[in-house]
Design a protein that fits this description.
mainly alpha, about 0% strand, globular, binds fe (ii) ion
């Protein structure tokens, strides 16, 4: 399995099972529209999955909340049409997630839908839409921020200067900057 060796790192140990579960779902059943993508590969989604889970664990999220983040990680870039900003890939991926739940009997989480939907939009829009939604608790705002930070932490794949750490949203994310670089280094020895 991709990144297996890093899972025995003490930071990853608590989220190992969860990572393996969602990684397998992605690898075996999630179809990516841009399979030859340079920057938004399944390897990118796997790193975002690890980062979201380790930060979620540090925040003390419930199992349900951890699963919500895990699902967002494996779906969020599955419906890209190009490697640029491609605004709208979030909404397409969210629709895919919703259909997938129905077809594969996966429990649907509204918070996963919203995170996925708005992950490619400005925080101000994502946060206000999430806050307005009657189906979500205020915890959803925290999950959205953790997820966006996890996605941002994998920007180092684009270059050493591709992430402005001052733009990170959560305290946890600052603590994981070096870990994100380490993760990337490890995965470059596998497949990217
Ligand atoms: Fe994205
Ligand atoms: Fe992404």
């Amino acid at each position: 399995m991709f990144l297996t060796d890093i899972l025995n790192d003490p930071v990853c140990q608590p989220i190992k099972k969860s990572y393996e579960r969602w990684y397998r779902v992605m690898e075996e059943t999630i179809e990516f529209w841009l399979p030859d993508s340079e920057w938004h590969t399944k390897a990118h989604s796997a790193r975002v999955l690890i980062l979201a889970l380790v930060m979620g664990h540090q925040k003390g999220l419930s199992d349900e909340e951890m699963n919500a983040l895990g699902m967002a990680a494996i779906f969020h870039d599955s419906r890209r049409l190009d490697d640029g900003i491609d605004k709208g890939h979030g909404s397409r991926a969210a629709a895919y997630y919703k259909d997938y739940c129905r077809e594969h009997n996966l429990p649907y989480e509204a918070v996963t839908y919203y995170i996925t939907y708005y992950h490619d939009q400005d925080d101000s829009l994502g946060m206000s839409e999430i806050a307005k939604s009657p189906s979500l608790s205020e915890r959803a705002l925290l999950l959205y921020q953790i997820f966006k930070d996890a996605d941002a932490l994998d920007r180092f794949r684009l270059g050493a200067d591709a992430l402005d750490v001052n733009m990170l949203r959560t305290e946890e994310a600052y603590k994981f900057v070096e870990f994100a670089k380490y993760l990337l280094l490890k995965s470059s020895k596998n497949l990217t």
